[in-house]
Amino acid sequence: MLAVIGTLPEPGAPLLTGPAAWDGGPLSVAGTAVDVARGTPALLAAASATALALGRSAPHAVLAGDIGRGDGSRAVYAHLVETLPKSPFSVLAFHYLQPDVDWHNKVLFAVQAMRPKPLLLADAGFMYAAKMSGQATEYDLFTPDAGELAFLADETAPHPFYARGFLLSQENRVPELIQRAHVHDNAARHLLVKGVTDHVARGGEILGSVDAPSESALEAMGGTGDTLTGVTAALIEAGWNIPRACLAGARVNRVAGALLRPTPASQVRELIAHIPEALETVLRDEGL
Amino acid sequence: MSLLDLLRPKGRRKQAPSTDRGILVFANTSEVIRAETVLKAGGWPVTVMGPPPELQRGCDLVVVYPLIETARILNVLEEAGNPPLEAAPLSGPLLKPVDLYQIKDFGRHLMVRAANMKITVDKETRVIVNVSGGGCPDVPWLARELTGRPLDEAASPRDQGHTLCAYALDLALKEMRRLCSR
Question: Which chain A residues touch B109 with a CB distance below 8 Å?
């Protein structure tokens, strides 16, 4: 089972755990309606749409309200430390959480007690914490965008805000940045680098890239990285190996974007509505 | 952290515990003590220590604070009339905030990226139409607050937000305003 762990942009919202089902409207988490705008709800809606289309069970959500004060993230972290060792999850996807090295390490320690050990995916704030902690290589997949890849490639930067300019300006040198992140042990075993071209890497080497269909407006649309991570996580939970899931996830996200015919003002919930059809297209192309 | 790693002597662990801490540099010790009092009263786990050798200015004490919450902490200190001379990562006191912007012109829409944050504006209406990127939990909330607002009426992400992502978004918004005022 896939567990998606993150936050809600609602100040003071209490810890919310349970299956996350999406049918085109608000996301339903353990019976509670959650608005799908961007962030972890967008990831969950995309993962849920993918999982249900594949005949899998809905992802399990672990969420709490947090608008940057860290209170909701700490509630999530405390819940994970207590419950993970005896939980049945096969894939854990960590997302918008306040980066906190101490809490990160406590959560990773709880994960080490899980049997069998789940696959570990990290995006957004938890990926920052994983890199800051020096434990990036414990992870199976990171899903950075261009600015975040520069941060992973910069062994001195504690946050993308401090990534050095000579790395940030290397938009066309993704392979070098991937290699650099890998050499300094600041990358997970696999990277899915989101961008104009999506790249999938293992051990610092690019295994494959996806650049079509291409809708340049998607770069401006908040949440498209979240949906890509969500689709990919659901495919991994369904048993696809990580590189294949990343490449197919990138294609699903792009086909969904092409079906939407977006402008830079389009909102991600419009894209998620096209994921089931896009998934069907990609599965057909895969001969499934 | 692997179980094996926990058994290693502390100095050989892979973990770098200071990487999520920042330092606040002040002109004199009185300001350091005032900042420590204000921040502790706000519930932040701050401590006072000697400055790293790389620092060339400030007094002989600095305040150590949670780096991620830079935006909120600077706001609180400014409101208290006690802003620092400088805020920097403890693990790299000479590191500077991003000052490089990527600009993308979609025709009717313009996008500015600062570090990991992107903001997009409709050039005809000057309304913010999208915010993307980022990883700290105030980003989805700030995105909701900003999207649909006229560029000139949008509140500063640094004032509303709490984290370094909010700070980066603030830089992107300022750069967008600069570009749109030409």
Answer: 217, 220, 263-265
